Amino acid sequence: MTHPMPAIRLAVDIGGTFVDAMELDTRTHAVRFRKSPTTPARPWEGVLAAVGLLGTDPAEVELFIHGTTLGLNAVLERRGEATGIIANAGFRDVFLLGRGNVPADHMYDFQYQRPESLVRRAATIGVRGRLDYKGRVVEELDPDDVREAARILVEEQGVRTIAVCFLHSYLNPEHERRAAELVREAYPEVTVSVSTDIVREYREYERTSTTVLDAYIRPIFERYVDRLESGLAEDGFAGRFLIMRSGGGSMTSAVAKTSPMHTVLSGPAGGIAGAAYVAAALGRDNLLTFDIGGTSLDTCVIERGQAVAAYEAKLEQFPLLIPAYDIRTIGAGGGSIAYLDRGLLKVGPQSAGAVPGPVCYGRGGDRPTVTDAAVTLGYVDPDRFLGGDMRLHDEAARDALREQIAEPLGLAVEAAAAGVFDVLLAKTVGAVRQITVERGHDPRVFSLLAFGGAGPLLAPLLAREMGIPEVIVPFAPSGFSAWGMLTADIVDDVSRTVMTTLDDADLDALEAVFAEAESAAAASLAAQAIPAGQAVLERAMEVRYLGQEHSLTVPVGRDLRPDAVRAAFEELHHARYGHVMDNRLQILNLRVRGIGRIDKPELPAYEPGDGDPARARVGSRDAFDFGAREVTAFAVYDRAKLEPGDTLDGPALIDEGTSTTVVHSGQRVQVNPFGHLLVTLTPEVRS
Predict the structure, then answer these.
(1) Where are the domains positioned within the chain?
(2) Residue 171 Rama label (left phi>0; alpha psi -120 to 50; beta)
(3) Which of 637, 629, 666, 641 is nearest to 653 (CA)?
(4) Is the peptide bond before 43 cis (omega within 30 degrees of 0)?
C-alpha cells in the first residue's frame, strides 16, 4: 500500500498575545486559520496548541515554517544566559564602552545613565594575539591565554555562553576560529558564538555587539527549537522545519540554531514577505504595510515592489549588523495600556500582553487597553471574538475606562474611548511619517495594507488622517504574517568588507571577493537541501560618497566597471535624496544574497457575485463614527459571505471573527477578485 505524499504546509507566528497558525493545502489551495493564546513561560506549548486547534495530521505536513520573537523578548526581558566575552588584550572594553552616544529622547537629560550592560566587566577578558588592519598576523594567538580566559569565565564567573570577537578578524577569521576550538575542547557544554561566523564586516563595536547578543540568546533559542521539534516529531511530523529570517526569507532550523541573531526580528518579517507578494499580485508598486498585533505596531515601505531593507538594526541600545527589513515599530497594539500621566491621556508602550491581557478578556487584567476601548466603541462584538471561541467581558472593559480615564477627565465613556484612539492615531501617524515623508516619499501615492488583529480596525482611520487613497485588507488579516511566511524563499546573506574607493578598486580583486562570497552562499543553500538549479545569487555593493557616514546598497550584476556602478548609485541616491554630487565614491562592503526558490501559494481569483452585499449583512450595531465624531448605527457584514464585486458604504463593520474592518462615513468598500477588501473615499468626499 502506498501512502500519499505530504501536501500540507503549516506556518505559525508567535505574537505578544496570540499564536497564529495557518494551514495551506497545496492540492486545493484551501487555507485554514486558528489562534491560540501565547504561553510566555513555555512558548513552544502555545505553538503546539495552535497547531492542535487546526486539527492537522502532522504526518501530512511537508513544510513547517515559524516566525518567533523568542530572541527579541529574551533581550528585552533580560532572560538570556550569563554571557562572557573573549577579546584582544587591551580591548576587553569595546562592548562596554560602545559609541558613547546619548539617545535622542535623552539628549538634554544631564542625569541620563546608560542601561545596565548584558555582560559584567568581570566576564570580559582579553587574550594575547593580534591582526593588523589588513588581516595579517602581528602576534600569534596565545593558546594558554585562551584556555585561562575560558577557565575564569566558566569556573569563576559562571558564564554559560561566550562571545569571541577579535580586532580585524573580518579580514582573517583564523584567530577567532582557533580560540573557539580551544574553548569548546575545554568546556564542551558551553555555547560559543564567533563574530566571523555571524558577520564579516568592519566596525568592531557593532560586530562585537551582534556577537554578544547572539551568544546571549543562543542557549535558550536552541532549547526552544529542540523542544518544538521534538513535540512536532512526537505527533508524527517528518517534514522540513524552517524559521523566518529578520531580513526576509527563511532558513532551516539547524541553521537557525547556529545563527539565532538572524531571527530576532523575524516576527514582522512574514507579514512583509507576504505584502511584497500581494503587491506584485495586485500590481501595486508602492505599498505601506500596517501590522498591529497585541503589543506593537510595525510599518514598512514596499517600494517598486521590493521591501526596503537595511543592513544594521538596533535592539534597545545595541546595534546589530544583520540584514533586516527597515521597519518602524512603536509600542501600540491591542493590548497597549491607556493611562493618565499628570492629567494627560497616554497609550502604551506598556502592554497587558497575553497574561493577564486586556480587561475584557476576564483573565485578571484591570487596566484599560486599546482592545477595551474598541469594545466600548462598539467595533468588536463581544459574542463573536475569535469566531465565538472567547466571550469578552464588555461591561468590565467599560467600567475600567469609566473609572480610570473618563471620570478623572470629566468625559463620557465613549468620548474617553475615542480619545484612546485619537492618541493611538497620533502615534501611528508619526511612525508612518518616519518611513515616508522623512525619506522623501509622499504617502498619498501609496496603498496601505492592513493586517494583524487590530490593523483593519485602525487603518481606515489612518488613511483618512494622512490622505492615503486606498486601504487593502487581505483575507484572514490577523493571520496574514503566518500566511506571508508561506511565500518566503530560503535565503542566506554573505558580506565582505573591502573599503576602497571606486576609482582605485582592482576589478579582478572585487570579482574574486564576490566569487568567494557566492561560493559561501551557494554552500549554505546546498546544506539546506536547495538543488543547484533552484539557487539564485544576487550581488550588491554598499557604496557612499567619500567622507559620508551613511551608505546605499546598490544592486550590481557582473559589470563592475566604475561608470556602471556610479550610474546605479546615482540613480538610487537621486531617488532617495533628490540630488547627486561629483564626489568620489567609496565601496564599503560587497554583499551576496543566496536565494533558494520554493513554490509559492497561489492567490485564487473568485467568480464575481451580483454586486449586492445584502446577503452578507447580519444586522446593525451602534458604534462611534470618527467621520461624524458621534455614535451612530453601523451596518454589520459577515466577511465570509461577501463576494467579488460587492460594494458598500460606511459606516459599516465587516466582521470575520478574528478581526474587524471599521469603515467610517465617507468611505467605501469594494471586494476585489481575490476577496481582498479595498477601502477608499466615497466619490463625493474624494471630490
Answers:
(1) 1-264, 500-596
(2) alpha
(3) 637
(4) no
- Distance CA(41)–CA(267), nearest Å, equals 18
What is the C-alpha separation between 205 and 319, in angstroms, rounded? 8
Q: How many CB atoms neighbour CB 207 within 10 A? A: 26
Q: Spell out the alpha helix ranges (H) of 235-304.
A: 253-258, 266-282
Amino acid at 201: E
Q: How far apart are CA 129 and CA 140, in angstroms?
A: 5
The x, y and z cell numbers of residue 143, run together, are 593558546
Please give the single-letter amino acid code of residue 323.
P
Provide the pairing of β-strand 660-663 with 652-655.
antiparallel
Query: Residue 225: what residue type?
Result: V
Torsion of CA 383, 389, 395, 399, to 10 degrees: -140
Alpha carbons 165 and 175: distance in angstroms, whole number: 9
The number of angstroms, rounded, from the C-alpha of 152 to the middle of its chain's C-alpha atoms is 37
Q: How far apart are CA 587 and CA 683, in angstroms?
A: 51
Residue 201 and residue 497 in contact, taking contact as beta carbons nearer than 8 Å: yes
Kindly report whether the global pTM for this prediction surpasses the value 0.90: no
User: pLDDT tens digit string along 348-386?
Assistant: 888 887 678 899 999 888 999 999 999 999 999 888 887
pLDDT one-digit tens code per residue, 193-202: 999 999 999 9
